[in-house]
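Dataset card, provenance and construction

Sequences and ligand SMILES were collected as paired inputs. For each pair, a complete structure of the chain with the small molecule in place was predicted and serialized as structure tokens. The example below shows a pair involving zinc ion. Curators did not alter the output after generation; any descriptive sentences attached to a record were derived from the structure itself.
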Amino acid sequence: MKSIGLRTLLFAVIVLLSIAVWSRSRPPKVLIVSHGLVVTMDGNRTIYDDGAVAISGDTILAVGPRSRITAQYAASQTIDAKGKLVLPGFINGHTHVPMTLLRGLHDDVTLDDWLRKYIFPAEAKNVTEDFVRWGTRLAAAEQIRSGITTFADMYYFEDAVADETKAAGMRGVLGETWIDFPAPDNNNTAAMSAYTEKFLKKWQGDPLIHAAVAPHSIYTCSRKTLEDSSTLARKYHAPILIHVAEMKKELDDSQKQNGMSPVQYLDKVGVLGPDVVAAHCIFVDEADRNTLAQRQVGCVHNPSSNMMLASGVSPVPEMRAVGVAVGLGTDGPAGSNNDLDLMEEIDLAAKLAKITKMDPLALNAKAVVEMATIDGARALHLEKEIGSLEAGKKADLILISLDEPNAVPMYDVYAQLAYALKASDVQTVVIGGRVVMRDRTLLTVKEDAAITKAKEYKKSIAASLGMQ
Ligand SMILES: [Zn+2]
């Protein structure tokens, strides 16, 4: 009995050792996206006509000509990108995703009327955690369909936004809003602070979610709120998301009350720094632009929103010229857009700059594609992680069909992306190595349920406001 016991033990040890050796020598699972026109957006803006991307886990292993990549790596899974463009996923640098459920509530009014008469009452009566979850699910479906892989958000119940973003497999820089009036989730700044601290702690180290702090703006936050919120963010090395210089009234009021522009005021109170993402930056003069560059603030341009609300035009070429990282955002999706289609913003950013300066050279196709990808990543301070297809970065990429009537012929890939291709041409989306849309089928979001729920919410929101 003794010898059998020893033999059994020896046998078990040998089996365990062989399993350990086998699992260590087993090659890692590699997903290869091959045969596509790969536009890397790397430092040299390298393009491979017949390229491939090798992915292991959530990270890019290598990018290059198909022959080299397929010789180097054995694929355990392949995505055929023949006839397709392979591009880093688009980065939506500024939005408020749960507001999808308020889409089209009331448009063609002034910003002031829209906020005071419609949005603030609608939010006070309707915004709950359930509202935020369904709005985020709907937005995830819309964003993935248009090739967005990362978005920056500012809203309430941001912890629920984070849950739903992670469930959808999307990457998010998600900011809990601080504002000097009772918000739908927190009644006062002490509650906002407690909620935000818990939120920041909870998501530390998450591969997809970057929890952030979002003081709304200088026109809705006192100096103390601005200081307290940025101090809390810095304690946790979290990004700070804020609306900056988005209205003429904000500039005029700041000059009257603070004796300086919004940018100079934010600098004076210690908010500006290399962790700040400033949405809009419309009313920024030369001194402001230099300050933004010195402080390494990222800016996000929202052309649809700025046009729809007649806010003004951000001096994007001038900001780029002094080295400010400028990304692109949809803003909205209610009242100031009203959709989450970043390809539309790519097109409009170029055209708005051209018409404003009466100069077709003002902002070119390549520049606006950079703003949607690598410069968007720089604006969110995530350029080491995303924004281009390079070894070591996160595997966030999209496949766009080049066989549609609006996609042929193609002479210049950047011009095609900026002015001809549409969100509906996006076929397949991979985020962190996970396929979240394959051939236009969403794999991580229950789209039908989100659409049904949005229609139900419309009825209850309209009723709460005494609308038909
Ligand atoms: Zn906004």
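Derived descriptions for this record:
Residues 94, 96, 243, 279, 331 surround zinc ion (CB under 6 Å).
The chain has 17 helices and 17 strands.
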